[in-house]
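User: Fold this, then the next.

Assistant: Folding the first:
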Amino acid sequence: MTSTNRTTSQLQLLQSADTSPTSGRFYDRTSLYGNGESDLATAILELIRSDNLKLKASTEVQVRHEIGLALDVSETKLRRYEETISELRRGLTA
């Protein structure tokens, strides 16, 4: 594939993403919110609803629950890494 063909293909991919019915409404939607779990869940549920899909209330609760669990694990890992880095820094300065 020539350089021109690659550039044209990349441009077509970008244009097709821009013409998606949801791309403008949901591009990096989570950055519009500020506090993690509920915001991510809300963005996902809005995206699902944008396709005119209806979820049972219990399914929405389960989606929020699963997202919350995943974020809890990530936050715990992050805190552990931060603690380890702090301990290592203290060891280097001692």
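Now the next one, as you asked:
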Amino acid sequence: MGIMFVFQGSTMAILNNGFLVNCPSPLQDQTVTGAFQDGTFFPQDGQVHYNVGYVITNYGNSSQTDVGTFFQCKITGGNPAVLVQNKPYGAALGNCATFCIPYGSYAYYGDVIYSTLGKLPAYINLLYSYFVAPAQITQIPAFTYIQVFLLSLISLGIFMVIRSGG
């Protein structure tokens, strides 16, 4: 019981950051309805894992009226939540038969970069939680340093084998 009490904060951090990392990327020219987050209980670790599910109802035809779907996942009050927005990713300024500015596509690329870079803190928190978890269980603070040192030696060894060609 004591180990679970010490480790519970890390497992919740791992689950919440895993939800943020697995948030869907924006969809261009596709409309989504019925977006949901389901909580699946895994008896192996006794935790509820949340995922985002959705149904694509409209596949676009790359016209100026096409809309895309943007997903924003966040943790509010310890509970995962997803916000789904329709955005005009097919919008353009001007007549595309001669010359136009596809500002909807630029918005799509910006949202893809935003959602990808927005997952970076969750990845860093996941790595930190994985490194700190053994030290929390064993109650040995130096265990994290030992683990990082051993992983760096393994990485150095793999690098040396690849570098030497065999």
